[in-house]
DNA sequence: TATTTGAGTAATATCGTTTACATTGTAAAA
DNA sequence: TTTTACAATGTAAACGATATTACTCAAATA
């Protein structure tokens, strides 16, 4: 029942070779003869032998494991995890598997020990950070880490002057594209719903894109058509409600996220404003629900599969001693009914 | 730059004690004097020392890590991971963290090596399986594992005669409750949309609940009101379309999943059947989109937070040598507009 | 005073690999 | 025949901790 664990010595004994030969044979070293290898592999299979990961890691000082650290600002209510990040975790895991890496998952509080807890304790060879916003952009500890050859990449807005590697979606130009689409379909008075302060860099970039579209089209931007909102349905609802109350006229809403857009749609409907006839709506993210609201939401889709793969590739580069570059990912405008061109 | 890694020897040297004392002091052993402990802790912090996980694991033969294995039948198209499982992964990770366990995540193909790859190779102390359906219920390899004190629990339907520990939602009685709710709001001809073969045990149990509700209310079940469907929007759409074509009369649909229900709603709408006036609809799962379809979908919510916590508790019991019992989790009927009682 | 006790610490043996280095055997080159 | 080269294997030293056993030195007991 509680049989002794099979070790490489058991295999060696049964195969009549030394333990080191077993190790070499199973790790695919070219230094071992073909016959010997086959024999050893057969015995290993028969005895149901598996290399002990801890011993192997300890000796080789590699773990073949990536830590994925998720900082979810949900804060007190840990129940709801941002679905976008969950999807990302999925694609990271799959990308990592393609390189024979395991993924160690952890939800974090914003702390300075995240790195030590994973790479320095040899749990993982590198760390992928999700949801850290611009925390790692200017943080002093992060600065130190970068200069002590730490291995980590961050999903987040790519901003000039960042020292470490960031991978993020091309917020600015895809936002510009969305607003441009509204212009081309005849809308003029496009409002922006979402935070525009630098504290939430993603929203800020999307706001920049919104402005770019205006200047590219030589249209003048009405600052009263910008209303702040947090990334939630409720906040989007309130923002649009207050916009309506200002009596300011508008014929389209560009929302900084789908959640905001969904709240916005609710507010419009409550005031009997027809979508898209009177007001067109565009969101950002393409969360699953976006296609189910009515009218179905036009939005910008970030390719999470590519994102996961690229994050993994960058962190592996870093582990192998290269210095990965930050990278923008293109996003795609998904046109549905809410913007009125379908 | 590439400074030598700090080990417990460095601490020992600086503190003027032996290395073993350092180990004890930091692992909270009561065998070490108070002054010595404080001194050692201070030095450890100063030198930014972290216990090497691999060395520690190797020696102690424990990893403080749980493997979460997700078998997602999506198959060829790995892009879309079942959002329900993603949520589950989140709650498992958070529950595990509460017990100071890490989570190692892996997507699997259906294979017989999943166990060896994780616990036998000492990557993890135990394994939580998601999405294995009834694979582990009757599988011979699983049988062997159970009798060789392997540590694993499975999320899935609890079925009599299972040898290992399963945790699943109480499909049968919550389905019965949902159908009962339809009866009480005056519906008579309730159809069931979803597979009823034992191959998908969850759906089968939900079908059993549907039947139970009929027999409890002494109503006779019309077998022509049962249409098979897979767990997808498209399949739900087709199923309901074919039901409509049979000309069989019905005033409510109980769908085995929300995705099916969403497809069903589409089909009804295409035939200009009013929801809920002519036909009420109830789903199962409460995926995020359920509240966004229109009319908002009445459904049955599985409590993923509890589920994650219980899975973790069971696997820890198993690791500690106890024999955890399988367990049902209650589910909750979430009443929205699609069933017409709101 | 001699002996016991026990708290605190030191010494040492693992845990199961990987890997640098040493050794052997065989065949080609001198 | 002797040397050389190379391929295949063996030997043994890490890797960095934990666990067990053995020691020290004070206070308590006889």
Itemize the secondary structure elements and their pairings.
Two copies of one chain form a homodimer.
Chain A: H1 8-15, H2 19-26, H3 34-46, H4 53-60, E1 65-70, H5 83-98, E2 102-107, H6 114-120, E3 126-130, H7 135-138, H8 140-146, E4 152-155, E5 165-169, H9 171-184, E6 190-193, H10 201-216, E7 226-227, H11 233-245, E8 252-255, H12 258-270, E9 280-282, E10 299-302, H13 304-319, E11 327-329, E12 331-334
Parallel strand pairs in A: 1-2, 1-3, 3-4, 4-5, 5-11, 6-7, 6-8, 8-9
Antiparallel strand pairs in A: 10-12
Helix pairs in contact in A: 1-2, 1-3, 5-13, 9-10, 11-12
Chain A binds a DNA duplex (30 and 30 nucleotides) through residues 5, 7-9, 17-21, 23-24, 27, 31-33, 36, 51-61, 122.
Account of the protein in words:
The structure is a homodimer of 342-residue chains. Chain A has 342 residues and is of the alpha/beta class. The first copy, chain A, has three domains: 8-51, 434 Repressor (Amino-terminal Domain) (Orthogonal Bundle), CATH 1.10.260.40; 65-169 and 304-330, Rossmann fold (3-Layer(aba) Sandwich); 171-302 and 334-339, Response regulator (Rossmann fold, 3-Layer(aba) Sandwich), CATH 3.40.50.2300. Helix content of chain A is 42%, strand content 15%. Chain A contains 13 helices and twelve strands. The first copy, chain A, has helices spanning 8-15, 19-26, 34-46, 53-60, 83-98, 114-120, 135-138, 140-146, 171-184, 201-216, 233-245, 258-270, 304-319; strands at 65-70, 102-107, 126-130, 152-155, 165-169, 190-193, 226-227, 252-255, 280-282, 299-302, 327-329, 331-334. In chain A, β1 (65-70), α5 and β2 form a beta-alpha-beta unit. The N and C termini of chain A lie far apart (66 Å). At the A-B interface, α4, α5, β2 and α6 of A face α4, α5, β2 and α6 of B. β2 (102-107) of chain A pairs antiparallel with β2 of chain B, so a sheet runs across the interface. Chain A binds a DNA duplex (30 and 30 nucleotides) through α2 and α4.
């Amino acid at each position: 029942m509680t049989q002794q664990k099979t070790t490489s010595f058991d295999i060696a004994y049964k195969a009549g070779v030394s333990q080191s030969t077993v190790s070499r044979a199973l790790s695919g070293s070219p230094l071992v003869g073909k016959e010997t290898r086959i024999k050893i592999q057969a015995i290993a299979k028969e005895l149901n032998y598996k290399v002990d990961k801890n011993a192997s890691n300890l000796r080789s000082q590699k773990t073949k494991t990536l830590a994925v650290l998720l900082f979810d600002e949900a804060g007190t209510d840990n129940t709801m995890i941002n679905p976008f990040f969950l999807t990302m975790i999925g694609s990271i895991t799959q990308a990592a598997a393609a390189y024979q890496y395991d993924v160690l998952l952890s939800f974090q509080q914003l702390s300075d020990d995240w790195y030590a807890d994973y790479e320095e304790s040899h749990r993982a060879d590198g760390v992928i950070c999700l949801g850290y916003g611009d925390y790692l952009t200017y943080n002093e500890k992060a600065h130190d880490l970068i200069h002590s050859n730490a291995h980590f990449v961050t999903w987040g807005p790519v901003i000039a002057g960042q020292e470490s590697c960031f991978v993020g979606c091309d917020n600015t130009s895809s936002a510009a594209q969305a607003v441009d689409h509204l212009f081309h379909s005849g809308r003029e008075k496009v409002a922006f719903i979402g935070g525009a302060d630098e504290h939430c860099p993603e929203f800020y970039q999307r706001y920049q894109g919104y402005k770019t579209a205006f200047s590219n089209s030589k249209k003048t931007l009405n600052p009263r058509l910008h209303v702040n909102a947090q990334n939630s349905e409720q906040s989007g609802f309130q923002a649009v409600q207050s916009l309506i109350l200002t009596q300011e006229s508008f014929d389209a809403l560009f929302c900084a996220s789908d959640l905001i857009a969904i709240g916005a749609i609710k507010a419009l409907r409550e005031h009997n404003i027809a979508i898209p006839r009177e007001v067109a709506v565009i969101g950002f993210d393409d969360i699953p629900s976006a296609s189910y609201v009515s009218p179905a939401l036009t939005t910008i889709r970030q390719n999470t599969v590519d994102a996961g793969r690229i994050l993994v590739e960058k962190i592996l580069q870093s582990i192998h001693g290269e210095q990965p570059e930050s990278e923008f990912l293109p996003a795609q405008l998904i046109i549905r009914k809410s913007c009125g061109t379908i």
